[in-house]
Amino acid sequence: MAFVPDLDTLENSSLNEEMFYGPDCLCPQKKPRLDLEVTSPRVGIQVTVTKGHPARTFRRAAVLVVAVTKFLKQPAHKDFADSDLGSFLDDLFEPISFQHIKGSYAGAPVFRYTRSQSFDILDIDHKCFVLESPTQLVALHLQGPSAGRKVKLNIALYRPRSSQGSPGAGRVPVALGIKGYQLYMSCVMSGAKPVLQLEEADVRRDIETVELTRFIFYRLDSPAEGTTRFESAAFPGWFVCTSLQPRQPVGITNAPDQVNIATYELSGR
C-alpha cells in the first residue's frame, strides 16, 4: 500500500524531483525527474502541493491531475492576426449590407450652343456654293439669273466648355448648315482619310457627345484680309475646301490653298 507523502517534505524538496514512497520504505527516495510543481509557460500558472489532511490531500491531488490534463489539452498559442480582428469586429458591430447601384451622369456639354447667323459665302476665286442634289454641295461661278441658285450658310455659333479652355483668338466653334434646309456639313473618316459630307440634322443645341463633334468646325478669321477658314474639330489640320476647277464638290483637305482653295469671304449677314 502506497503511503501519502508528507507535504512539508514535498514543498522543501527540489522542484525538479519526485519523492517516492514504497510500501516497505517510509523514507523518501529520489526517482527520475518528474515535476510535482507544474508550470505552464503559456498560461503562467504555478501549482504547489502543501501539507494537509491525508484525505483532503488526496482530493487535491486528484484535482491537480484533472487541472493539468485540461491545461495540456488547451490549443497552442498563436499570434494575433488580421483575421482575428475581423471576426472580433463582426462580433461587436451588426453586419451591413451594400448594394451596387449602376448609374450614368450627364457631364458638361462639349460645346454650348449660343446663336445662329446667315452669310453668303464665296471662295477667293469667287465661286459660290450650290446645292446640286439633296446631299451634294458644289462650288461654281454664277452670273445673271443663275445667281439665285447660290446657297447661304446658316452658321451656328458655340462656345467650348470651361474645362477645354479658350480655343484661341479667332477660333470660334461653329456648325455649317445650308439655310432653308436641315443639312449640315460633317467631317467623317472614310477609308484612310476624312471626307466632307452633308447630313440631315439639327445641331442648334448643345453638343454633348464626342460623336457629334463631326459637325463642329473652327472658324479661323483673318481680320486684316477679311477672310476666313473652317478647320474640322474632329480632324485638326483638315479644312473645308473647293477645287480650282468649277462645278466640283466641296471637300476637305490637309494642304489648304495648294491644289485647292480653303479661304473664303463671308458677307450678307
Give an overview of the whole structure:
The protein is mainly beta and 269 residues long. The chain has 2 domains: 7-73, no CATH class; 111-267, Trefoil (Acidic Fibroblast Growth Factor, subunit A) (Trefoil). Helices cover 14% and strands 36% of the residues. The protein contains 3 helices and 18 strands. It has helices spanning 7-12, 54-73, 82-92; strands at 18-20, 29-31, 38-40, 45-47, 111-123, 128-133, 136-140, 152-160, 171-178, 183-190, 193-200, 216-222, 227-232, 239-243, 248-249, 251-253, 260-261, 264-267. The strands form 5 sheets. Strands 5, 8, 9, 10, 11, 12, 13 and 18 form an 8-stranded antiparallel β-sheet that branches. A hairpin with a 4-residue loop joins strand 12 (216-222) and strand 13 (227-232). The longest helix has 20 residues, at 54-73. Residues 1-27 and 29-41 have low confidence and may be disordered. This is Interleukin-1. Monomer. GO terms for molecular function: cytokine activity; interleukin-1 receptor binding.
